Each structure stands twice: as structure tokens, then as C-alpha cells.
Amino acid sequence: MHVVMVGGGVIGLVTAWRAAQRGMRVTVVDPAPGGGAARVAAGMLAAVTELHFGEERLLALNLASAAAYADFAAELTETTGHDIGYRACGTLAVALDADDRAHLRDLHALQQRCGLDARWLTGRECRRLEPMLAPGVRGGLRVDGDHQVDPRRLADALLAAGGGAGVTFRRARAERLLLAGDAGGRAVGVALDDGTELGGDAVVLAGGSESGRLAGVPDGVLPPVRPVKGQVLRLRMPETPGPPFLSRTVRAVVRGGQVYLVPRADGELVVGATSEELGWDTTVTAGGVYALLRDAHELVPGLTELPLVETRAGLRPCTPDNAPVLGPSALPGLQLATGHYRNGVLLTPVTGDALAASLATGVLPDAARPFSPLRFRSGDGASAAPPRQELPV
Ligand code: GLY
């Protein structure tokens, strides 16, 4: 079986690797494999602290992937020799004023209803954990299960793992889906921007925010994915002996916007992220950098002393229900692995396993079934899980 993977971001790469491990022949089509949103993302594995009202169904998938991460990281390191920067460091979500505290209390209540492990701390207790926090911190949530990984290292490791498992990389852009059969009833490959065509027994569309605009995909099959811009800063923490600048991820909602600080073991401090609906624009703006630094400075005042080493913007692939689109589409031969929105890095392990199983058997594993593309077909509510069914791959 030959699988054509459209997109070589972390989702396409993990799916390619897992499919190759199952004996499939896989070609990843991407002009720059290992690129994409993961080159910008902070890499929080924030199933608990990024829980949102109405996303409880997604929580189960997020938690499953978070639970798989330690073994996934160890397997990647053992296979490739790459350290992906997995840190079981935990997260502290804090409140800076009364409004933030009310918001955090609501989140804590939701976490408790969902049976999640999150402990309320006073401002003093927060600062005892993280002495660089602003003195005005009003309280916070300690979540010891929300960890981090370095998405750039993850992408590099997945490239190496795929290569080692026999995945072929075709450095070109997929321009159009090729169809065959009665009335074009089956996906059979893609046409590339170098003028060639690549045939396959199955095509997986894993193009991140671009997944919604591959030509040739019939109406009603194209995933409803749109880009949501995020601007992210990278700073460098001092290499001084003694306590670290920050020892865990620290985050807050400031004036309604999310800000988070993710400290890496190698001294990088990632500050993110804006959330902007501006189409395909990836400009880093003065306003975006200002807002991030202003909010991060309110949280950790000492941060303005640090060198600012990089500013970058990426596009999150967002769907109408903020959840990914996984598995067989309504078009035989076409499977989807996209729409991961805020959780692409977190959902990388579970997506690779689910899609490889689905490619091998035509059936999506139970944990991933609520995220079938068929939930967006007219007449199906976004909340209705599609019936279990065998679809040709
Ligand atoms: N998960 C973090 C973000 O999307 O900004």
C-alpha cells in the first residue's frame, strides 16, 4: 500500500512514521518538511490548563495524548538519538487581578467537574513556587500534569524517524487531488507544482491551516479549516548558577488574552501567543510584540532584562468546534489529519497512532471516532459521533 501524505508538519510526519512502521510505503509531499506551525509553537502539553467550556469531548483525546507523551518521547529518542526536549515540569496558571481570578476560579470548577488534578494556590504560594512572579499575583492553579516539549526538536526527530523507517520525502507542493472512478469517486494521488503526478492507494491530507484549500477535493469533503494567527517571542534566560529564572510553564489571562511563558532546559524562554483572525497573514507586528511583552512583563517583571532573540508568527488550523478532523473522509481513498488548532503538538502521538490504524484497517480507533470528518457533513450536528463504519481506504 502506498500512502501519499500531503503535508510534512509534525502531524504529517508522525502519521508517515507510524504508517511506515506498519509496513506501508509512504511519500510525504511538502516543499519544506519539518516546517509549519510547529516551528513557531511553544510546545505546551496543556490538556488541563487550556481546557475550555464546551470542549470536554476534546479533553479525553488531549489527556490520552498527554499520557502517551513520555513513552513517545523516549521511543523517538531511542529510535533517532534526538532529544525532543520533553520536560515533565508542570504548569502554574495565575491571576493578576480580580477579573482574572474569577476566570481562573471558573476554570478550576470546570477542571474539578472533569475530575482533573489542579490545586488552587494563594498568591504567596504561587510566588514561593516561582519567585520571579509579580508581587501582585492574586492566586493561581498548580497543574503538575501539564508539561512541555520543544516542537522544533520534535519535528527534527520525526523527520529522522520517518527517514529511518523508509519514508520518502518529495520536496514539492501538492496542488490538486487526483480523482478516478465513476464520477471521480475515489482519491488516487496528487498533482504537484513541479508538473508531475504522484499516485497512491490512499491520500492523507495533513496540510495544517492550508488543508482547506487543496484543489480537486469535492465540496462537502474539504475540511472546514481556517487559519488563526499566533505571534510568539523567544527570549534567552540567564545561565547563572542558582535557582532557574522560571522552573515551570507560567500562564495567565491578562485583559482577556492568553499569555504564557514556557522555559526550556536549554535556556530558551518562549512567550506566546496572540490569537488573530487575519487570513493568511503571518506578519510579526509591533502591536503583537508589544501586547505579548506588556502582558508577560505584568506577569514576570524581570523578563524585560532578557535578550529577545526571535519573533515569529504561525497559523493554527482551526475548525468550527476547535477539534481536529481525523480519519476517513466521505471520499474513498482520502483520509484527513488536520484541524488541530491549539493542540497540534499535544495531539501528535495520538494522531499518528489513530491515522496509522485507520489507514491499515479503514476504521478509526474508538478514542478518535468523535473527531471523524463526517461530523461536519450537512445534517450531522458537530456533536454527533458518526456511526462506526468500515470505509475503503
Ligand atoms: N496552545 C497554545 C496556543 O495555541 O497558543
Question: Would you give an account of this structure?
Answer:
- With 393 residues, the chain is an alpha/beta fold.
- It has two domains: 1-88 and 147-224 and 319-393, FAD/NAD(P)-binding domain, CATH 3.50.50; 91-144 and 227-317, D-Amino Acid Oxidase, subunit A, domain 2 (D-Amino Acid Oxidase, Chain A, domain 2), CATH 3.30.9.10.
- Helices cover 26% and strands 26% of the residues.
- It is built from seven helices and 19 strands.
- The protein has helices at 10-21, 56-80, 98-113, 123-129, 151-164, 286-299, 348-361, and strands at residues 2-6, 25-29, 44-45, 91-95, 119-122, 139-143, 147-148, 168-170, 174-180, 186-192, 197-199, 202-205, 226-236, 249-254, 257-263, 268-272, 308-318, 325-328, 334-338.
- An eight-stranded mixed beta sheet has the order 5-6-4-14-15-16-13-17, sandwiched between helices.
- Helix 1 runs parallel beside helix 5 and helix 2 packs across helix 5 (151-164).
- It starts with a strand and ends in a 32-residue tail after the last helix.
- The model is unreliable at 380-393 (pLDDT under 50).
- The structure holds glycine (GLY).
- Glycine (GLY) binds next to loops.
- It catalyses: glycine + O2 + H2O = glyoxylate + H2O2 + NH4(+).
- Keywords: Oxidoreductase, Thiamine biosynthesis.
- Pfam families: DAO (PF01266).
